[in-house]
Amino acid sequence: MPFFWIGDPRHLPDGARIHTIETPHEAHSIPRGHLAVLQHDFPAPVTPGTPDLANARGVVEVLERAVTLVRSGTASALCTAPINKKVLKDGCAFAYPGHTEFLAHLGGVERVVMMLACPQLRVVPATIHIALSEVPTAFTPELLEDTIRITATDLRRYWGLASPRIAIAGLNPHAGEGGAMGREEIDWMAGLIARLRKEGFDLRGPMSPDTMFHTRAREDYDVAICAYHDQALIPIKTIDFAGGVNVTLGLPFIRTSPDHGTAFDIAGRGIADPTSLIAALRMAWEMAQTTEDTSHGNV
User: Fold this and answer.
1) Cα–Cα distance between 10 and 124 in angstroms, integer?
2) What is the DSSP letter of 267?
3) Residue 132, Cβ density class (10 Å: 0-12 exposed, 13-18 middle, ≥19 buried)
4) Which of 13, 89, 167, 188 has minimal Cβ neighbours within 10 Å of its Cβ?
5) Phi, psi dihedrals of residue 40, rounded to the nearest 5°
6) DSSP, res 292
């Protein structure tokens, strides 16, 4: 699985075995045990655990360069490392909530879907980083329908699931319990699900969120679409905290990322767990293998 890293070699740990390349194709021929580095110079060196605003623009440039490579077919997939959003905003007036939204902009799409995946579970939060009090307003029929369509399309494209089985979690406890604990499931969710079933979508729900994530229940679906952030992320982080992968669905290219943040507090101490990054790289490769054009084979 040849892959390469884009960045400033000065930012890698001392003693790292690197091999600088001029083009992504050269990653196929570097010595075993070396990291292929497509060099991109940053203004300043790095002090582990201490962000430098001078390098903010460089981070944005690397993302732009990476997207150009995957969109041109020079690379097969993009795996992004965590970023500190505040550093980008303060350092280069970054106008996006995070790099996912920036990647959507670069890909020319208005809406993307965040999926968290591990071997035992895939989950999609329809609403993401908003206050819980805002969820009932943001969680609309239009949003849920778009989320279902994008999720189903990419599960077919990248996982080879001809008819993905999609579980829809209710917004309310016990999926509203017949209206006793909320009416969204009755007033519009059930009707939307029924309409999309007639189009051929394999949907089940609205399901009671508290009974759909145990081992037996997970055997009946390929992905769970949830109403809000914690409803989706608590189950997967409980099942596989270290090995979860963040996948952005709806982009015109493959993008994965580790399911964790920058961890400045342990940077440079040699104790970070690489499990999620390794899983993200592997998943990007597997997704690329499922698509038609895998001739370049770089991540």
Assistant:
1) 37
2) T
3) exposed
4) 13
5) -140, 105
6) S
Closest CA to 56 of 70, 71, 43, 65: 43
What is the secondary structure of 87-132 as a DSSP string?
Answer: HHHHHH---SSSHHHHHHHHHT-S--EEEEEETTEEEEESS-SS-G
Which amino acid would we find at residue 97? P
**Rounded to an integer, what distance in angstroms lies between the CA atom of residue 191 and that of residue 42?**
53
**What residues have CB less than 8 Å from 206, skipping those under 6 apart?**
168, 169, 170, 171, 175, 176, 185, 189, 190, 193
pLDDT by position in tens, the chain (length 299): 589 999 999 999 888 899 999 999 999 999 988 999 999 999 998 888 888 999 999 999 999 999 999 999 999 999 999 988 899 999 999 998 888 889 999 999 999 999 999 999 999 999 998 999 999 999 999 999 999 999 999 999 999 999 999 999 999 999 999 999 999 999 999 999 999 999 999 999 999 999 999 999 999 999 999 999 999 999 999 999 989 999 999 999 999 999 888 888 888 888 888 999 999 999 999 999 988 544 445 66
Token digits for 244? 């979860």
